[in-house]
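Comment thread on ticket #2218

A.B. wrote:
> Attaching the input chain for the structure job we discussed in standup.
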Amino acid sequence: MSNIESLLFLFILVGAAGFFLRNLYRLFAIICLGQGENRFDHLWSRFRGMLIYAFAQIRVVSEVFGVNHLFLFWGFMFLLLMNLEFLVSGIFPRFSFWFFGDLPYSVMLFMADIMSVVVLICVLNAVIRRIFFRPAYIDPTVDAFLILGLVAMLMVVYFGYHASEIRLGQKEISPWAMPVSYLLSSLYYGLTPEGAHIIGRVFWWIHALVLLFFLNYLPYSKHLHILTAIPNCFFRSESFVNTVPRMIFRRGEHFGVSKIVQYSWKDLLDFLSCTECGRCQAACPAHNTQKPLNPRQVIHQGKLNVLANGRAILASRPSDTIAVASDNAEMVVPLIDAREDSVSVNAIWSCTTCGACMQKCPVFIEHVPKLIGMRRHLVMEKATFPEELIAFFENSEQRFNPWGIAPNERDKWVHDRNIKILSHGAQVEYLFFVGCSGSFDPRSKMVTAAVAKILNEARLSWGILGNEEKCCGDSLRRLGNEYAFDKMVKDNLDIFKKYGVKKIITYCPHCFSTLKNDYKQYGADFEVIHHSQLIYMLLQRGVIKLKGQYDCSIAYHDSCYLGRYNDIYREPREIIRKACGGNSPVEMKRHGTESFCCGAGGGRMWLEENLGGRIYTERTREALETQASVIGVACPYCMTMFEDGLKDVKAFDKVVVKDIAEIVAERLTSTV
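C.D. wrote:
> Ran it. Output below, let me know if you need it in another format.
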């Protein structure tokens, strides 16, 4: 390499490196515009998680084609070292990693040769997939093909200039160290040394320019995640995101999120870390039923919004100051709007908060809290929400239940049952938090009675709040009415404290998750047990016994707020197995962590499905495909949705929906 070439390359390298570092700095400054959030705890655990999810790519390879991405990733990771040698040798031609020793360096060259072939094969697989076998959730963008083309070109020219060096004797190594390059060097034998040298230099310069262009193109492409995904995995939530941040209400503050600067810095990093793999889109029940919500698109729109507004904010400052932006900062692009770089109102209200998107995301993007943040703004600042919610909010705030039924009707289901009520002076170990559905909905009251029967059969010390019980506030919070939720929580905690409640049993998973996870933000220190957990424990210990051996066919549906949000999958299935003479429940096509939402979560229970198809109908059809005679549930919302679905598909007389408590109560050896 001539001195002129070295100087020219030095000039290009310094310019490219400076531009790249400038872009990195601007990205970092944009992320810092977000609100503060502590994600620097448990550093060793975070580092271990980063190794598992970012480097071992456990979630990526959970899908069949993910293995291709894993090889592509590790091919690039290894070639980073060789590209470092390449860049330094462009300035200092005699530089190489020979100082590691002949054998280590030869092994490095061998791995680089092999990994270059692996990367080429992976690129070819990706291109073929996108052209001939492209899943619906992957967009055929020009950007994707450009990136794949650049990667393929890097590998081809890598072999081109190394084969030239071998032909000219400039790389004196054993053939085993670079088997592919040695094989390709035979293509130069028909050329003169001068011709081979010229072609080799052309390949070298193509490699240099493509490499530096690729590096600087990343911050402007869909592959920005190459820079941000690894830190996003490091800063991930260490467990499934089963709650949303608490709001502290102060005079003059904004409610919810209407600007990107009102999100936390981790939220902004999320927007910039999307791999656009489409897995969230494929799992989303709203998108699967042709609603205007596409979680991948929401994050992409957020990314465009972050970059547009972030650059504008930084440009308006004397320098790219790294500091949190004010809530009052003016935005050049609205976050909530019908534009392509904004999130639509219909998309925001279509979410069921089922969490399937977060469960599938390979880089741990937290979609649901972002949508709830926007709902908070629409509800509490703009009073812009679906018309059906007017009555829901009024009923919840004034009568403490969604139906607006008089609070003194809550304990009507008790009748003459031997049930203790805490306000009557009862001292009990367990509080059975019946919930609104269990207290007021006629069908759910049958499940409440079944739970009471089981608790009495087990001779547990338990009671209810009766007319003092109020809604847990789950739907209020998920629909964005945080102010009403905040008041509801404080009222409930005062009641729990009044009676010294330490253990709570719930029938509804939404009550369970809210009391267990959301109330912790208010200092709650009681134990919360879902009825599936309690019944399973009672059966395991032999406290309650079931009569006879029944052969039954039950298809069990996993409630999102029981399964994904709280990792309760085994207990309901074991209950069904014990109740059915050892026969496990029939599994639907999508079950467990892959379960498909019934459509009622996130407050959608109280909204009509006016856009697209009906989620509960699709899930009902999936249950009917199992040909089971019973659809087993552990949630009153799921119960309602399946029964409505059976009516819609005219199968109500063929299949019944039962809660696991009803299945067990029917088979108890004695009655109390």
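A.B. wrote:
> Thanks. Noting for the ticket: The chain has 26 helices and eight strands.
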